[in-house]
Structure formats: structure tokens, C-alpha cells
Input
Amino acid sequence: MKKIFSVIAGGCLLALAAAQVSATESLIFGITLEPYPPFSMKAGSGEWQGFEPDLVRALCEQMQVQCTLKEISWDGLIPALQANQINAILNSVSITPERLQVIDFSKPYYQTPATWLGDKSLSRDTSPAGLKGKQIGVQSSTTNAAYVKQYYKDSSLRYYNTQDDINADLQSGRIDVTLLDALSVEPVLKAPGSENLADLGNAPSDPLFGDGVGVAIRKGDTALKAKIDKGLDALRDNGTYDKIRSRYFSMDISAH
Output
């Protein structure tokens, strides 16, 4: 009797998995309204460009599904996923223990350190003691924000909706330093008005930064996770991932 029940239960699970795969023939990926070059930015035509929109299109082509991008504020991405308004998020969402309590992730598709960027006149000591009393700007609801909130209690913290707003205040001197993804440092330093800024080095490895960046999916959607993982593996194996990566970054950012 137990064996018969196991067969029936297994059949139900397969049917459920098949239904989930079928439901993903058309996918909606959430993307934050706020540009985050070179990961995501809008062309003059209004089309999303950058490393992650390009990767979404390649992944969907590999999975042979139709995909659309839905613009949502950064803070609203995970709530929209949980509310079934979107199917997935491929938008620099770090895999952290806190997030794993409410959503699932694919395998990581990139991993880079967090880097301090600030005025050239600052000391290279970016420890909590070294930045005591300094104005630190970070994008809200990010692992960088969680990190500075945890350790930089003697600094003045300012939270922003977009990295562009942080960069503007950094260039004008309204804040002293920011913590951002290492891949975003070079574009900022090359931008007009950044002559007074410098790369102040990477933050030390910390569990608050998570285990790389993955595609966020709803809790328990194992069929979609398997499909995305298989698609990401295929893009790495056939060279498409590196082709996309090389358009925007010179360094290897793949999560091994």
C-alpha cells in the first residue's frame, strides 16, 4: 500500500512540475525603474540595455520562451514576485540568508566584491574607525546598505533610491564615500565630474554580501529554477555568457 501511495504521490509531483513548466512558456522578468549602468540602462529608444537585459534576452532564447521586462521600483521587486505579478528577477539581487527565507534563487550568474569609492583626499582606511564621522551614501535595500548599517554606526549614513543620485552627491561633495559593486566603479570614475574621486579598495568578505547574484524566483517554483539553471549552464558552455559579459566588463565576473 505504501508503494502504491508513493507512486501516486510521485505522479502528482510530476504533474505539478509539468504544469509549472507549462506556465513558464511566457515569462515576465522584473527590472528596477532606476538605471544601474552598466548592468541596466535605457537607450534613447526606451529599450532596456546593459549586461542584465542582454542576459535576460539570451536566457529566454536559450529556454525557448517569450519574455517581457516589467519596470518596478527596486523596493517593489520582491513583493511583486511574491504577488505573482512577475515570474522572476534578473536584476542584481544578491543571494542572502534573509532573502532565502521568502524567495528562491537560481545558481549565481555573477559575483564581485563591494568597493569603496570616495574623495581622493580620504584616507585609504575604510574601516569603521577610518570612516568615523564621514558621510556614507548607499542604495537602500541592498547588501551594501545592510553592511554599512551593521558596522558603520559612527558614520552618518544616507540612503538613496538610485546609484546615479549617489554619484551626483559624491561628485558634488555632499557625501564623502559610497559602497557599490566593484563593476560599477570604473564607469563612475570615467564620468565627467569625477576627477576628485578614487577607488578606495574593496570591502572585506562578509556573509552580509551573500553568495553571489542569482535569478530570484518564487519560493518552491522548482520547475522554473531547474529551467533557468539549465539555461544559464548552456549560455556559459556555448560562450554566449562571456560574449555578453565582454560588452560591458573586462574582468571575469562569473560565479564559479
In short: Residues 1-24 have pLDDT under 50 and may be disordered. The longest strand covers residues 26-32. The chain is about 35% helix and 20% strand. The CA atoms of residues 14 and 56 lie 27 Å apart.
